Amino acid sequence: MTLRFIPPVPRRSLTPAFHANRHLWVRVTTLLIGLGLQATAGETPITVTEPTGVARADWPVTSGIPLPRGQVRHARHSALFDSDGKQVPLQAEVLGVGPDGSIRWLLIDFQATLAPHQSRRYVLRHGPGVTRKPVPGPPLIISLGSPENRIVPLLKTGPLRIQLAADRFRLLDHVSLDRNGDGRFSDDERLTDDRASGIELVDSRGRRFRADLSLSTWTIEQHGPLRACVRIEGQHGNSDEGTKFRYVVRLHVFRGRPFFRFDYTFINDDPDTLMSRFHSLEVVCSTRERGDRLVLSGKPSKPSRLFQLDDQQFRLGDKLTRGHANGWAAVAGPHGGIALGVREFWQNWPKSLEVKPGELRIGLCPDFAKGQYDGRPLKEEVKHYYYLRDGVYTVKIGVAKTHRVWAMPFDGPPNPTASGTFFGLPNNRCWPSAHRLT
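-> structure tokens emitted (438 positions)
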């Protein structure tokens, strides 16, 4: 469940345009954190609350902030201060401007440290006389190529490095963790490899289309001092059958943090038919060490598959259980591995997670048995099951769906307790928005 908060009614000093939009939801996109906003001339108080009972250290917070008309025209004229008056490192980006050219919406990023259930107050100051200090510490390094390094896109946060192959896009195929903290990434610190296919779509005829079998384009959408986002766009390809469905991946990394997230969107752009059918769509990740240290359903596991059938029940292996499954899994070798989790896993059923030595598979649109969702009462079918008939997914042209996945590389063997804390308890209704499974 995404945390949402309605801003209080603004003061009379605000313009009618803001009054008209005062019931817009304000959403924090990075943690289980909500922002309470009340705008004043030159200042916007912000309250950040940790609602899940988990301590957070330097946790990324992202939110859109409404500003009064005519107050500030440049994002650089904004700065964030804590309750002691100390300036907090801030990244700010203009989202929207008014007819007079002043900023109406500002996207801010900062990092907050919170004890369980703690609330912290901040003040965003904005105006021509406000200056912001440079963000200290290791910078975010994003490179999509250079004359010396043409085909090796890199993202580095300090402890984390993600390398992407521009000529063959396999998501998560080269993730490294600086385990010894020396600031370099040696070959033995690489956690994942390219044995897995990355993103794979299987159509209703059993043909496999993969993101790495067609050309992709790369764009740096954001490259600030605290958060960066790279957009990768292409089509799922097949060497003999052309392409099927366009995709967009937005990969987000955070300064100084070892975890990251990606938002994957598929778009049905097939012009040949009104309704397109497909069997499955999965994200597959393989670890460098083919170890058998597996975690599924929050516990050490043998090779198995977890399937969330609907919002009432899930199946782990052959066992059917009522309730909501943990929406994350981990695979590791002796020296480390990776845990992946899907935001709103059970709410967006059907979903699946599968682990086996050296491989983790996320079923964003998992394969399911023919007849699994057939024969439901008409009222239920038109609400929930209309696109899940005859053992395939059926989507109309123009339909797009986005899934958010959080990734936590780690050193050593899997730690189900630590991973469970990061991805959140399955019955906790206030999962962090930054990783909704957290």
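The longest strand covers residues 242-254.
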